[in-house]
Amino acid sequence: MPCVTPRAVRLASPLLLTLALGCSAEGHGEHHGPEFHFGPAPHDPAEQATRPVGGEPSDQPPGVRDDGSIVFAVQWFEGGLEQALSEAKDQQKLVFVDVGAYWCPPCHELDEQVFTQPEFGAWLSERMIAIHVDAEKGDGPELVERYKVQAYPTMLVLEASGIEKGRVVDFVEAEPLKTKLEAITAGGNVLAELEAAARDNPDDIEARYRLGHAYALAARRDEAEAVFASVIADDPANEAGFASKVFFDRAQFFTLKLDGDPEAAIAKLEALQRKYPASSEATRAYRMIGRASCKLGRPEQAVAALEAMIASDPEDVSLKISYGWFAFRENCRPEAGLVAVLTGIAQDPESAELRYLEAELRRLVGESEAALAAINKASELEPDSAYYKRQVRRFEALARGEGE
Hints:
The protein is an alpha+beta fold. Among the domains are: 16-189, Glutaredoxin; 314-404, Serine Threonine Protein Phosphatase 5, Tetratricopeptide repeat (Alpha Horseshoe), CATH 1.25.40. It contains 17 helices and 7 strands. A hairpin with a 5-residue loop joins strand 6 and strand 7 (164-169). Helix 8 (221-234) runs antiparallel to helix 9 (243-258) and helix 9 packs parallel to helix 11.
């Protein structure tokens, strides 16, 4: 699942789905960052990068500046999606939509490592109108709902009519990304490869799970359920570790995300924990239960779930990181999340990620000076991180009373 700060968590194999009329999303391993994203995003007054305006190139060479700011090689269209579609129609091009969020580290990897490459920028501008969308601001939430975006970053390729041709999810390096986008623009059907792998290897339960997971991420529920049923039938005791994944996917993608039913999602996640208590998904379920509880306006129940998560293995610092991300992203009892993060820092004082989370949580509880000290420490621990340099500027602005 995309996002840890700033160590980008990659998909085991970033998922590309190229469909006749489009759909898709993610496919990932365990990580600490936000899996799916609900609720308002914090404003970021210093999250600025030099994006060419109106298609005109910047007078600076593309790349990451010493202060962490970015000059893009991609010529981002300045305007909304409908304007971009109109422009694409006039120019007989496709539309490339980069959907991300300021706090999403894999999104920043794309910005810093891919969208700054002149060859990639030139290739993209020849074929597509490129638009960047913050999923949690402005028209972003409407676009996320319209195209069923399930994770960040998601890169959509649209016809000028607005119909999706395909998408790529999570960080992908420039050349592989170009190859995947070429497959989409050529009208290929990469999802067919997953279908063929499952069909040609009927005893390969992993191939079937990957196909079902891809369908789920594409919001193709009926197809996903058919494949998931076969996975559970062949792995009822979770000996292969896929039945628990199916239970988790159903609760997360279908019940919580598509149905919008947090109460039922909690029930399904608790059933997963009872049925497969030793699975990694049983541990992951605590945070999803916390998120669903927050959506129901039950912060104490949410905190109880996260406390149970870290109590399941007190020596596991990653669980405290997960708690910190939860408290930050959901803005749910940040003072409790801060306690967990500070405990994690005592265990691992060299973790820049924990220091970043300390900064965000101290900001939420009104400790601006301590927050600035924490983000400075994160930047000291990872001095080459452009992301942390930008966050230092952001927290300096906040300490001056600018922005939030």
